[in-house]
Records
---
Amino acid sequence: IVELWKNVKRVTVSAWEMGRSDPRKIIFSAKMGVALILISLLIFLKQPFQDVGRYSVWAILTVVVVFEFSIGATLSKGLNRGLGTLSAGGLALAMGMLSKLAGEWEEIVIMVTIFIIGFCATYAKLYPTMKAYEYGFRVFLITYCYIIVSGYRTGEFFHTATNRFLLIALGAAVSVGVNVCIYPIWAGEDLHNLVAKNFTGVATSLEGVVNNYLNCIEYERVPSKILTYQASDDVVYSGYRSAVESTSTEDALMSFAVWEPPHGRYRMLRYPWKNYVKVSGALRHCAFMVMAMHGCILSEIQAPAEKRQVFRNELKKVGSEAAKVLRELGDKVKKMEKLGEEDILFEVHEAAEELQQRIDKKSFLLVNADLWEIGNRPRNENDSQDLLNMDEESHFLEYKSLSEAVLDLRSVRVPKSWEETVAADIINPANVTDEKYFRKQTSWPAHISFQADAIMTKQEESKTYESASSLTLATFTSLLIEFVARLQNLVDSFEELGEKAKFKDPLEQQETV
Amino acid sequence: IVELWKNVKRVTVSAWEMGRSDPRKIIFSAKMGVALILISLLIFLKQPFQDVGRYSVWAILTVVVVFEFSIGATLSKGLNRGLGTLSAGGLALAMGMLSKLAGEWEEIVIMVTIFIIGFCATYAKLYPTMKAYEYGFRVFLITYCYIIVSGYRTGEFFHTATNRFLLIALGAAVSVGVNVCIYPIWAGEDLHNLVAKNFTGVATSLEGVVNNYLNCIEYERVPSKILTYQASDDVVYSGYRSAVESTSTEDALMSFAVWEPPHGRYRMLRYPWKNYVKVSGALRHCAFMVMAMHGCILSEIQAPAEKRQVFRNELKKVGSEAAKVLRELGDKVKKMEKLGEEDILFEVHEAAEELQQRIDKKSFLLVNADLWEIGNRPRNENDSQDLLNMDEESHFLEYKSLSEAVLDLRSVRVPKSWEETVAADIINPANVTDEKYFRKQTSWPAHISFQADAIMTKQEESKTYESASSLTLATFTSLLIEFVARLQNLVDSFEELGEKAKFKDPLEQQETV
């Protein structure tokens, strides 16, 4: 009993939480209750009409089935249901008359028509473009079978058909009425908010990625949820993931939103909902770059912290400017304002260019000159020492890069012990038999240790990794710059949306004030 | 009439096409027809029982609603419906008895209970984890209202409830029977095939990306569908897009597959369908890298073709080896085989390392030494000439990088004309007023031309872009290497799947042969 009481308490708490976080759900449930009361009230009141009571089930059924969360969904379902019933009713009446003519073959004719209609309707609803009307086909089929069968039983085709249709219309009217009149929930508004929210999510992710990268925050152990692309509560990750994953939600909301009449802030026939989805798609195109940048953090091969610091200010500036642009665009989407006169991208382009120039000047940091084939340019260590004290750290880096490369995706062991194992392996190449053990432990440099038959080779390879790790810095930077380049595309689709949806012009507004 | 005839012809053709590409759809439609005939047959036969005929609608309704494409979906809907009806029936009976006790307040009590039940059921079904049972709640609500209302009218609570339940059970039995016995369509099998197909898709994309990159195939005009992440028929793009986008399909199929009994090749209770989704997620994690590489092709800033050729063989080898690994894994998933003894990743790791070493040796190609701050190392042009005849081409490259940077996302104009405009702008800085014109035309270097007040600056910037364009080559390579690194994760999750799903061991098979 204590157990049961706990469960009840838990359910109550989570129900309360849900209600608090989205009060619309409570309101919607209450609306559903009101609609049901209304429809049963009608049935009680009209008790003198025997038929209405008898077919009352259709009205109740319609209310329950048609009553959807958003207005658009309710309207589209109601219409589907109405059309399906009407056309099936007509067809069933015609078929019923025909089957009467068939005399003693009546049953067979009915069977055959049921099969044919069932086949055609099911086949048609599987056609991709018909998916939106899936529900209509279902209703069509139900109605047809019902009218044919009950008509056969009672002989009252016409009566059944009209009664059924009237009660379904009644049910649909009540649901739509209640849904629209009491605190309407619009799919279009949801879509609008979703798109605006995605902007914030990507902006947060972008800032997080850049900061984590600069502060060299690494994942001790990358959550396996990220590796298999499942939802996770990592802030950086969930920001862009929700933007990337919202495709299907957006499509669903759009398909409902197009059914909705002009309302609230969307006073316009044929409101361009499609363009919201398009803006969101352009945002997604940017989000993929954030994703790739996040990949640089998740990666095993990491650029050394010292080198990242060289570009710290520039990277940070680009990141924050880009996030600012995203936030501003998101805000404009939310407020439904057009862009101002000044170029919103000016500052971020400026910052990106500074970053590019900086990279250019310091690009020697990204490569390993020792191995260049143009051998007549010996590396002057003193120069680099001036800049970074690389000489002192070079020994450290050599190991660092290897140990970082070992930051295995599963990282079941501390890197330290790996280094020891590698060392042991090089001294004693007979260890190679131990293959299974290695394969489980490391992902990337595994087979290198098998090749390594001389310490010489190993050192060269360790340098290879050093330069590989530095190149990831170049990658990160390129991706960030590409992100900035993609912003233009986003701004373009935003402007198209602003044009089509007749967003307010901030300049005109100021004038009128 | 000609118009109508054309339409009819078009519809027929597309229907035929659909049937040919997926014959299961035809079979499914025929099954639907058979199930409908069976259920109406039962109703005809049992005509002596008046009640059965009267409530026949429930059986028909159940068949139409429960009959879904895959077995898993049918079973889960059938069970939802059964449970919903049963529990609602019980509750309604109890409430009906209670309301009788209320005497003259009966109507009010009924109304209140309808409201409360409607509210609770609707609220519960909005709870995220309850989404799978959404249909059950709906049926619950319908049943409750129907039994209460019709019970009130006729006073036969018990009679109505049992009749309804029996007929729904009959309908569900017929649908499940027909669906399972005649050519069953399993959601699990669909899931299995989808995952295997994703492997091929990503492999094709990867090869396509690497080849396009090496052959310097650029998009004259990037399809705006790619920029807004909509479906497009670009082969490279659709390959990874379908893998990335299949998340929701996979989740849906999995939720159905878990309902299916052991069958065919999946003879095992609690078959690990979840792991298929996990493998697919790991594949998606790899696909994001392909996506980022594709981004390098889509980008405005492109590495010069000559430099790409330097790494041609290595890039190509890594690309084809990685694609081979993907294909092999996909094949293994399809055939349900475990991996062999040898390390499937050995060759691709080897190739990746060669690429890395090559990059290391040639990394001077990626940077622009002229701008290095360590000024005492003047660039020896002759050396590079030995390698690439860079000296001769340097003038060309200088323009090339700029003109490539102009390969605007929308590229409404030929790059040529842009260069001319830039030149004009530099000579005559007063042109800056023409801002709108510029903003529409270019995306990336737009504001540079406004800054440019001396040809000197412009040349420096053009070099900046030259080095930026070379760095994208480093980016492409890094991404490819990161892709290879992520393969390990994919192999791991594949092995987990193989373990849990008890895939065949190729070695054991050979022994038994």
---
Amino acid sequence: MVVQTGFAASVATLQADDLVGEALSDPLLAGSLWVNVALMGFALLAFTYMGRTVTDEYAKLIVVATIAIPAVSIASYLALISGLTVGVVDIPGRGELVTLWGRYLTWTFSTPLILAALGLLAGTNFTKLFTAVVFDVAMCVTGLAAAMTSQALWLRWVWFALSTAFFLVVLAVILGSWSRDVESQDAAVQRLFGRLKYLTVVLWVGYPVVWAIGTEGLALFGTGIAGLAVTSWLYSLLDVGAKFVFAFLLVRFLAVEQPTVTRQGLGSEGAKPADD
Amino acid sequence: MVVQTGFAASVATLQADDLVGEALSDPLLAGSLWVNVALMGFALLAFTYMGRTVTDEYAKLIVVATIAIPAVSIASYLALISGLTVGVVDIPGRGELVTLWGRYLTWTFSTPLILAALGLLAGTNFTKLFTAVVFDVAMCVTGLAAAMTSQALWLRWVWFALSTAFFLVVLAVILGSWSRDVESQDAAVQRLFGRLKYLTVVLWVGYPVVWAIGTEGLALFGTGIAGLAVTSWLYSLLDVGAKFVFAFLLVRFLAVEQPTVTRQGLGSEGAKPADD
Amino acid sequence: MVVQTGFAASVATLQADDLVGEALSDPLLAGSLWVNVALMGFALLAFTYMGRTVTDEYAKLIVVATIAIPAVSIASYLALISGLTVGVVDIPGRGELVTLWGRYLTWTFSTPLILAALGLLAGTNFTKLFTAVVFDVAMCVTGLAAAMTSQALWLRWVWFALSTAFFLVVLAVILGSWSRDVESQDAAVQRLFGRLKYLTVVLWVGYPVVWAIGTEGLALFGTGIAGLAVTSWLYSLLDVGAKFVFAFLLVRFLAVEQPTVTRQGLGSEGAKPADD
């Protein structure tokens, strides 16, 4: 059962293992991971407690999607700490680079939850939510590919450009469609949506910026362990805002305000109440 | 294109291949896999035949979800037999351990189908089904991580604890929400749900127990091929109950009784018939 | 963090890397990949432009699913070009074989979108779409397993047979259920559905045929780079028809005709407007 994949192929394995082990035992880098394990563990418990008073089934759906965000996040950070989703990429002309590729993998699962929570709050319909989620997943998977690609440096930036293009579709849905959808909601929902929208858009723009200037990209902080730790801290801080603060504001609002969200149909004339 | 991942990193590859090949050619271990390929193959054909008389579209949805359970299972066991999803983990202080990690991977796909069938039978709504499935997938993925983690023994048990915590959410939905939801169904549906509920809860508790005492955990049967075969047989027998017996009871009921299941809306006031 | 998986296990890694690199730098093979990157990139832009005039939310859902097809495809071909999803399988009695396994992986994501677009056009319900998608994903994943399996040649054909069995379920839904569903639509939708149905069925049958006669199967064109390039071109041409032509016809129709599609409920008596 001998299969070599592009992912797996290597001879310099022992050395790679050393590099990964060395990186993960760096206190600054490890700190950037453990802090989010602790924070997201707290979030899981706190949000479950806060969300218990929500009674409306639709609001509960938003709460569950929101609570699942720190659940994915804690698993993501533990996987990095365990070294399960950390590897070494050997890029021509740059050398061996430790990559915490698990971040890009788990964003595939956490970011659709953030979009689901945001879109459901706006009372959007299935078509617009589907659009946002499909291009969001495409954005994350191509981001993962960017980090994994070692054949040539320019190919990494092709992936980056493709990922960014998909990101623009997500931004268009948030800033365009959903901002219009939310106008039929009451004032409190509109205010919260506006706040969460700007939080999300500003911080999400931060991720590709960190990618571009961090170890995966231009490596402005160097490609050594110090640069890796700085990059990791930047991502971790973005995660605190885009996941923890986002989820906290949303769950608190739903628990305190018990809002009613008006939802849209799929809009086809002649359509029966939909099951799809 | 040289990438080393945590998954792939190793020098003792030839030796690992020998270990996997040796394990898979053990008759006792191989038997624990082939018996389920045969059983699930029979199930696929039998359930498709049994389910052909179901006419109600909602009941058909339950039948399809149920038939998909042995479909995933047969692929899961063939992947183990093919060695595609079998590997070797080198745990500090314990040595090299053959792991049939494909089991944990494919549960990610089969267990949501079981929950979908059970929840749809109870007539539950999207929010509760979403809750069960999200935390079920989180449980399976963290279980996979537990089996893969080799950095330290204690980290494997951190994963195990996290996976068990997610399992508690799934249990709460089954034993709490769905047991209340099913009360609005007719008596025959209630009886079947009660039976399937206890079958599922009891057997699903068995899986983490086998993990804890089997080769991945405390290794009460040893870490050699004999211990591996015993552990594999225990999982295979649990699968027979939790997948084959579960699916058989459900498909037979739907085909014979042709029940009508009353379904809940999402409950938001002001909601139009939903598309999301 | 030393884990050896079936996927990863190998010592002949450097040699494998050479094989992959050699294959990917073959102009004929590389051409079969780049041509689809270019075509699908053009498709993404063109379909987005063409689809902008669609106003009905249900028709928009079909457009988004359709536009996502070239989005997945462009990422799939870039991943092959990057060598991320290309590997070497060492099959007993046949030797080392370069495999572009990423094709089978990404079909798992692109083919459900094709089925979603086709089923939504027919106005089918959730049960039938769920059936088609579940068995389609099972078909793709077992096809991936077929390409990855190196333990024995006959095991590859067991996977192939299983994958083909799942394919028959998909065909039954398209040719049976959906062909009946579409009869309640207006004449223009029926005509387009008929055309897309035959395009899909004929071309989709081509994929297992190419697998069977190509490098993964009987290797009628040899197992060298020339055989690989011929096989890759056959797949690429099938993709042009089954993805680009399919999507072009569908988006153009929706943009020009602005049709109204009548949708079915889940059909359970006593059901409230559904949320699941």
